[in-house]
Amino acid sequence: MNVIGIKELQTNPGKLSHSLLNNEYMLITRRGEPLGVALPFGTQLLENGMKNWVALKAFQAGDLSLGQLGKVLGKNKHETLALLGS
User: Fold this and answer.
1) Choosing a second label site near 25 at 20 to 30 A (CA), which of 6, 49, 54, 75?
2) Dist CA 83 CA 66 (whole Å)
3) What is the per-residue pLDDT across 14-67, written as a single tens digit (0 to 9) for each?
4) The three-state (H, E, C) secondary structure of 17-67, written as one string
5) What is the Cα Rg of the chain in Å?
């Protein structure tokens, strides 16, 4: 997951644009505390819903394990693997 502080975002907004253009999400912080999340807008976000999309992206980035992903999605291991395969 990419992280950017609010001050850096003000001085370097291109970093956010670059992240979104690369279909990545970014955590925005203020004094080290989470402030918000910037998500690229696309069909996956609409089809899967924001919660599921963020969880899938976090899994792809290595921020969540398969078990954690399943728990977030409310699915067992086999259902989670089937979702990942689709």
Assistant:
1) 75
2) 11
3) 999 999 899 888 989 999 888 888 888 776 766 667 788 888 888 988 888 999
4) HHHHHCCCCEEEEECCEEEEEECCCCHHHHHHCHHHHHHHHHHHCCCCCHH
5) 14
Give Cα separations from 4 to 11, 29, 37, 41, 67 (angstroms): 11, 6, 10, 19, 27
Judge contact between 16 and 40, C-beta under 8 A.
no
Question: How far is 2 from 6, CA to CA, in rounded Å?
Answer: 13
CB atoms within 10 A of CB 5: 16
Reduced to 3 states, what is the DSSP secondary structure of residue 5? Answer: strand
pTM for the whole structure: 0.55
Q: Domains (ranges, CATH) in the chain?
A: 2-38 (3.40.1620.10), 43-85 (no CATH)
